[in-house]
Design a protein that fits this description.
Order of helices and strands: HEEEEEHH
Distance between the termini: 72 Å
Helix content: 40-55%
Number of helices: 3
Structural class: alpha+beta
Radius of gyration: 35 Å
Strand content: 15-25%
Shape: flat
Number of strands: 5
């Protein structure tokens, strides 16, 4: 066999090796992170719940999810161990939020350009209806022309 025929297999094996190596590295980092947990540490579970570590067992962790509310979780359910500053900022809202983006207002009126002339959405007077009657007739005539059937059109419902 020539090397050209074996080259695709060699490349495939190399790619598989690199993928499994990076997956093992991530898995090892996750194990190290879970082993760093100590009572009083803030964390986020894989379900997105923030809690404080009360006790660490071999395979389980006792978490305080609210004052006086405790739950037992598997260590594998820990998504991230957080720094004290980050945990307090997320859970308690401590710290200042630094944002360069403008705050979006509660109503959309400030987002649209406004003209000084207001649009009247009230009912029209009888005098206004008489003045606009010829315009309405012209519009009806145009609609009638648009409704004319062309070849192949039907009124089937």
């Amino acid at each position: 066999m020539s090397i050209v025929t074996l080259l695709p297999f060699i490349v495939l094996i190399g790619a598989m090796f690199l993928m499994t190596r990076s997956a093992k590295k991530k898995q090892q980092q996750a194990v190290e992170m879970r082993n760093q947990m100590q009572p009083g540490t803030g964390l986020r579970t894989i379900g997105g719940m923030y809690a404080t570590v009360k006790e660490v067992g071999e395979d389980t962790v006792l978490l305080e999810v609210a004052p006086g509310v405790h739950a037992v979780y598997a260590k594998n359910a820990v998504g991230a161990v957080l720094d004290d500053d980050e945990y307090n900022r997320i859970v308690h809202g401590d710290g200042d939020l630094k944002s360069d983006t403008p705050v979006v207002p509660d109503d959309a009126s400030s987002l649209t350009e406004t003209d000084d002339a207001k649009i009247d959405l009230g009912k029209k007077d009888a005098a206004d209806e008489v003045e606009t009657a010829p315009e309405a007739e012209d519009a009806k005539a145009e609609d009638a022309k648009a409704d004319d059937k062309t070849d192949g059109d039907t009124d089937a419902k």
